Amino acid sequence: MRKVIFSLHLYLSLAAAIFVIILAVTGSIIAFETELDHLFHAKLFYVTPEPQPLSLAEIRSAVEKAYPGERIAAYTLARSPDLSYQVDIGKGTVYINEYSGEILGLVSEPDFATSALAFVHSVHIRLTPSPGGSDIGKQIVKWVDVIIVFLLLSGLYLWWRTKRWTLKKGTSGFRFWFDLHNTVGIFALFFLLLLATTGIILGFDGPITPMFYQITGTQPALVYSRQKFTSDPPSADAIPISPDAAIAIAREALPGATPFSFIVPGPNDAYVFRTAYPEDLTSGGRSQVVIDQYTGQVLGAEGSRTGPTGSRIVTTNRALHTGDIFGLLSKTVLSLASLMMVAQAATGVMMWWRRKRRKQTVNPQSAGEIA
């Protein structure tokens, strides 16, 4: 059995090595996708905090003055006081200082940095540079995650006999790469298993996600539902409530959660606010409030703190995989762990190459010792 597991571990490693390296490198980068975006576009994002931001009516007035005739389609409010607001119009996204009303810039087309981040993100998810690429890449990615889990568990099994987890001074050649492979693998094992298993759940979300709801006896949260909320005018001359009034209602609907994003509703649509509690560090938030734009009635309000168990499992899985679960600390740890998979792939290949190059004949007993 040990020889079979060793052979499977070896040849699956060689077959999947290039994909493992690609996923590991791109994953370590996109863990900091938001932070890198802010860094590359600091003049658009960063502002000096002041006691009170302008109202959305004042924000709208400043945008309409700078871009007359443009309809405002959506607002993104900063979740940190030192970051700017974003307003979507027909020409692109306007970045505005929410304290002074100063227009910081308009982004109509992605620049090199944005395109590079999008490229890395797409390669990590589907192994293609384009978000609209073939689905074959996504299939490969999820099965590579399955292979990674097998490699980690089989590696643990093979390591258990020798339990080598240090680098001895003066070692070189095959023994050096063997010890390095073992040391890196055992210290990074937990985090790599976490990344791979959460990746499997994301990759096979079609069959797995419904199981979470079935097991917990819950239904998908509002934030995951495809329900279309309508908001029909009660009369021909009905006037919608203002975005500022709608935000105030959203805050009351989920006390402690901050509304940060919404699309300006059409004549028959409702306000749909994405909101987040302080502990929700994911970029998209995991809570939602739906409000009738004419009456101000709350049509739906669901916070991540009290949402369906199935949805909270889905949310937690994604936050674990991306490293958002504990913010910058968990992102850093998982990003470094992801790079450890590169080290595992590289040391594994080096071990195989040195054995092949030296054309050593390994008998069953020594094969077990090496494994």
In the sheet with the most strands, the strands line up as 4-3-2-1-5-6-7-8
Strand percentage lies at 5-15%
- Can you write the helix and strand succession as a string? HHHHEEEEHHHHHEEEEHHH
The overall strand count is 8
C-alpha Rg (nearest Å): 26 Å
Describe the structure.
This protein has twelve helices and eight strands. The protein is of the alpha+beta class. It starts with a helix and ends with a helix. The chain folds into three domains: 2-36 and 114-214 and 328-370, no CATH class; 48-98, no CATH class; 221-307, Nuclear Transport Factor 2, Chain: A (Roll), CATH 3.10.450. The chain has an eight-stranded antiparallel sheet with strand order 4-3-2-1-5-6-7-8. Residues 366-371 have low confidence and may be disordered. The radius of gyration is 26 Å and the shape is elongated.
Summarize the SSE layout with pairings:
Blueprint: H1 2-30, H2 33-40, H3 42-45, H4 56-66, E1 74-76, E2 85-89, E3 92-96, E4 103-107, H5 112-126, H6 136-162, H7 173-203, H8 205-216, H9 243-253, E5 258-263, E6 271-276, E7 287-291, E8 298-302, H10 309-322, H11 328-358, H12 364-370
Antiparallel strand pairs: 1-2, 1-5, 2-3, 3-4, 5-6, 6-7, 7-8
Helix pairs in contact: 1-5, 1-6, 1-11, 2-5, 5-6, 6-7, 7-8, 7-10, 7-11, 8-10
